[in-house]
Amino acid sequence: MRNIWFHGILCLMGMQGVEKLRLAMKVFDEMPEKDFFSWTVLIDGLAKCGEVETARRIFENMPNRNLGSWNTMINGYMKAGDTNSACKLFDQMPTRNLITWNSMIGGVKLNLRFLEALEMFERILEEEFRPTHATLVSVISAVSGLASLGTGRLIHSYIVKNGIELDGVVGTVLIEMYSKCGGIDSAVTVFGAISHKKLGHWTAIIVGLSIRGMADHALKLFHEMRRIGVKPNAITFVGVLNACSHVGLINDGHKYFNMMINEYGIKPTIEHYGCLVDILCRAGCLEEAKDIIEELPMRPNKVIWMTLLSGARNHRNTKIGEYAAQHLIEFAPETTGGYVVLSNMYAVAGEWEKVSEVREMMKKRGLRKDPGCSSIEHKGVVHNFIVGDESHPQTKEIYSKLAEMREKLKLAGHVPDISQVLLYIEEEEEKEAELENHSEKLAIAFGLINTEAGCPIPIMKNLRVCSDCRSVTKLLSKIYSREIIVRDSSRFHHFKDGLCSCKDFW
């Protein structure tokens, strides 16, 4: 027995790097007897080295398999991104334990298959397993990925009902989930209910408040955590700088950036510099933002170039926009968003020849613009809309509500921002018609039809909301006395009483 254990340890040592892979295999092959530990360690090590198929062959050759070997193989597939093979193996298992379920839920979540994670969580409860903290962390993260506020509330209720403590990571991911799903008030409530707040909890609520444009609240909590002796980390400062960015606090942004370096000794990362550039771009200080990028101690990434390009588009500075686009396309030629924003900038300026040139460039490179898609959850079902969508079962009612919205907007004095139309259309009426069917407007119409008066309407969009849709949504929140929460690719917009939480810095 001691000899088997000794060889198992040798095998484990052999798996610490790819270069020792052959040695580990040799040690394993020479073992006179092999126990479950040796087989499982070898499978795990091979999978970690990226040799998943070799690991599977070893697994198939095991004379007897226990739950540990099955779980190790599933975990290996998940880490390699091969979710389908993991699912097939899972279906073949004679028995499963909670470790199996945790590996599956964590794996499908990691590979962005969020709905499957929720379905597996339901199966766990049906089979009367008691979810661990790891289970809950994975499934709550999956809810965040789907922006499914209703499902998130159900899981939160389960946590409360079963007396599960929020002092650890579960509390952190709950705060993050509510923040990302449009339930910031619930995020604040969860934060307040945590008796022993750790750095992760403080950071999660500060980041959550900052992306909702609630800078005053975020910065107040930041000062409170410092007052009671909780030391912020690099992620905390990303949240603080984002808070400054989303409401245009230029001086405060510089102050906190310097505080991070001088007071806490935190070396700025590309994310921190990105926040600083974003602060300046949102406020229209494009030359200063450009100077910071040119003096960066590391190579600018595509996010920073995209930030400068978007800022140039928003403030109609074609010169800096072209400068940013050139660098962005050189850095990441496959990023369609850069071409789209550049095309948008030219369209706003009426430079239609350049719009055509950009589109021709995309065509030659085999690139296509991602279609805008807006999602809204109702009674546990996520409804997706694209521009001009007529596929929904309630299409007739939705377009009838759109017509009603259009009339009410006209009476309120809204004038469509036709500069947002990227197509070369001569007639203004045609341009206005193009704007009317944007995906978020369809989602809002659906929400007005299907939710009770006074209920918030949470919407998630895969692209940045255009200025016309933003102006329309501000007015609609006042006209219909509704809170409308739009989570786009850039930030949260919380519309209420005709105002937006971004305070026109977006």
TrEMBL record:
<feature type="domain" description="DYW">
    <location>
        <begin position="413"/>
        <end position="506"/>
    </location>
</feature>
<dbReference type="Pfam" id="PF14432">
    <property type="entry name" value="DYW_deaminase"/>
</dbReference>
<dbReference type="InterPro" id="IPR032867">
    <property type="entry name" value="DYW_dom"/>
</dbReference>
<dbReference type="InterPro" id="IPR046848">
    <property type="entry name" value="E_motif"/>
</dbReference>
<dbReference type="InterPro" id="IPR002885">
    <property type="entry name" value="PPR_rpt"/>
</dbReference>
<dbReference type="GO" id="GO:0003723">
    <property type="term" value="F:RNA binding"/>
</dbReference>
<dbReference type="GO" id="GO:0009451">
    <property type="term" value="P:RNA modification"/>
</dbReference>
<dbReference type="GO" id="GO:0008270">
    <property type="term" value="F:zinc ion binding"/>
</dbReference>
<protein>
    <recommendedName>
        <fullName>DYW domain-containing protein</fullName>
    </recommendedName>
</protein>
<feature type="repeat" description="PPR">
    <location>
        <begin position="198"/>
        <end position="232"/>
    </location>
</feature>
<dbReference type="Pfam" id="PF20431">
    <property type="entry name" value="E_motif"/>
</dbReference>
<dbReference type="Pfam" id="PF20430">
    <property type="entry name" value="Eplus_motif"/>
</dbReference>
<dbReference type="Pfam" id="PF13041">
    <property type="entry name" value="PPR_2"/>
</dbReference>
<dbReference type="Pfam" id="PF01535">
    <property type="entry name" value="PPR"/>
</dbReference>
<dbReference type="InterPro" id="IPR046960">
    <property type="entry name" value="PPR_At4g14850-like_plant"/>
</dbReference>
<dbReference type="InterPro" id="IPR011990">
    <property type="entry name" value="TPR-like_helical_dom_sf"/>
</dbReference>
<feature type="signal peptide">
    <location>
        <begin position="1"/>
        <end position="20"/>
    </location>
</feature>
<feature type="repeat" description="PPR">
    <location>
        <begin position="66"/>
        <end position="100"/>
    </location>
</feature>
<keyword id="KW-0732">Signal</keyword>
<feature type="repeat" description="PPR">
    <location>
        <begin position="35"/>
        <end position="65"/>
    </location>
</feature>
<comment type="similarity">
    <text>Belongs to the PPR family. PCMP-H subfamily.</text>
</comment>
<dbReference type="InterPro" id="IPR046849">
    <property type="entry name" value="E2_motif"/>
</dbReference>
<keyword id="KW-0677">Repeat</keyword>
